[in-house]
Amino acid sequence: MGYELVVDFLPWSRAVSEAKNDASQYAGYFPEYYSDAVADEFVFSDPMGSGPLGLVENKNNPVTWQTLEDLQPLVVGVVQDYVNTDEFDARVAQGKQKVQAVTSDATNIKKVAGNRVPVAIIDANVFAYLLKSDPSLKPFSEHVQMNEKILENKKLYICFKNNDFGKEIAQIFNEGLKKVDVQAIMKQYQ
Q1: Who contacts 183 (Cβ-Cβ below 8 Å, separation ≥6)?
Q2: Which among 25, 76, 98, 172 has the fewest CB atoms less than 10 Å away?
Q3: Which family does it belong to (predicted)?
Q4: Is the pLDDT of residue 117 over 90?
């Protein structure tokens, strides 16, 4: 679309904060799952892919569950400020689900491998990528796996600043997105 994309990798909470700050150099952040709370503050792009959100578990202590109520006795690892599923996040807000928040998915993988939490929420694609690319996770990779049941197949978006510039860039991004085969690109990287 004629623009040069520059991506910086920041801790999640900082990325969101920088994208909110009108004085910062950032036009937005990604990837994000849709939520009404975030939509009040940002302009969402059209979906740019999807990911199966599920639970990483210790191979020696797999968890059997059918509904989120089945997870209530467990402490679930989450990443601070991540949107999960509407139902899960509502249960946390209502005090019906105990969680331990950390700053990264890699930290949660290590905690599950070490039996410090029984499960943690993670996108299965992120889980596979981290195990392949993060050398610090190599000692833990044989101890963890994705639970068979997923929470939800979540669409992925870019969140742009909720101002005239952000709205303009979102429109340009959405036009460009129509010109590519998102599913083919996702398959190439999976």
Answers
A1: none
A2: 25
A3: Belongs to the bacterial solute-binding protein 3 family.
A4: yes
